[in-house]
Amino acid sequence: MNIENREFIQQCCEQVRQQMGSNTIAATLRHALTNTLDTTLQRGDRGVFVITGDIPAMWLRDSACQMRPYLLFCQQHPELQAMIAGVIQQQMHFITLDPYANAFNRYPDSTGHQSDLTHMQPQIWERKYEVDSLCYPLQLAWLFWKITGITSYFTDTFTRACSLVLNQWEIEQHHHSRSPYRFERPHPPAPTDTLGYEGKGAPVSYTGMTWSGFRPSDDACDWGYLVPANFFASVVLGYLAEIAREVLNNRRLERRATALKSAIEEGIEKHAVVRHPDYGEIYCYETDGAGHYLLMDDANVPSLLSLPLLGAIANDHPRYLNTRRFILSGDNPYFHRGRFAQGVGSPHTPSGFIWPIALAVQGLTARDPAEKLAMIQMMTATDAGSGLMHESFDPDNPARFTRPWFSWANAMFCELVLDYCGLSVSKLIANKE
């Protein structure tokens, strides 16, 4: 698939160059916007298939994030509208295929992790169940609708996918008593690649939140209730209720989404707030609802750092500010400092490495424009001369990095630069309303 009219790229990059006075930032923006269009888009069996980069599979999460920068330009650009609508249609088809899967093949050719001990199908690349994998397509569908007013993709497949999401999240409120989901990876390269307790994960108690087997890093959760993912779910359930009411005229879907949203939010408030001796009330990253919790944050989104970006909480909320101070400190076991950069990393990548995605999130959630600019400059200065973002890098030696081709990180850089220049999805929607 090819987007022939790319005048918007030239125009926005020139605006960035003039506004920021940096040829380097503008050139990196141009490279990133062009790279996604040139290297990741393919015709799918039900829409537009988007590979994540150096892995030839479509992640529900990554593909939604890869589209976000183009939302800013799609109002007057029919080719971009067709592209984004096609991605949503493909995502919804995949959800109806299996809502527990996180990544899919372009065709049912049985590539990917077919030896995993779970209910695999030929078109599934990987079946690590992550709450955020269902959040992102709903978020993208709502954003696209609010920006363009287009509703043609709200089909029977979309409604069926939404019903499956609600069913699954309701079941996973009672994971150990009602869930059919199991996942084990024989001879995993790392312990985080599989679930313990015979594939069902550590025991959890009912909280109102919905259970997740894996984090957005594709690493296994220690405790089953992933707090930032539940925040994200509460936000998109509000989106779903609005779509059901305003477009689908489906009152039952609206009521179910609203009730589940309320239960998750009550669970977060009751079970995910921890009083820290140095930071005051903060949110934990994971909990089991039975007294265990994990204080950390991961680079991948949804993260605690990203909560304002998700629309879950204001970036000046006292509890968020406390949590943010914790995350951006040495008390977060995955916050790392080096000679060239400092930021949040992940147990998914080598110890001490930090992620450009997390730097972008720090900038996008910052209240001070100077902090936003600092993150942009840090990202462009640590790209190892590639003009693109990597998955992670060594802050003492940015030439040491993982994944030379990672489109999600490129999209996050674009989003941050454009946000700094006054172009953001949230502002675009607010101006339309």
UniProtKB/TrEMBL annotation:
Signal peptide positions (record): none
SMART domains: DUF1237 (SM01149)
Stored InterPro entries: 6-hairpin_glycosidase_sf, 6hp_glycosidase-like_sf, GH125
Positions of transmembrane segments: none
Keyword Hydrolase: yes
Keyword annotations from UniProtKB, A to Z: Hydrolase
A molecular function GO annotation: hydrolase activity
GO terms under biological process: carbohydrate metabolic process
Name this protein carries in UniProt: Glycoside hydrolase family 125 protein
Organism: Kluyvera genomosp. 3
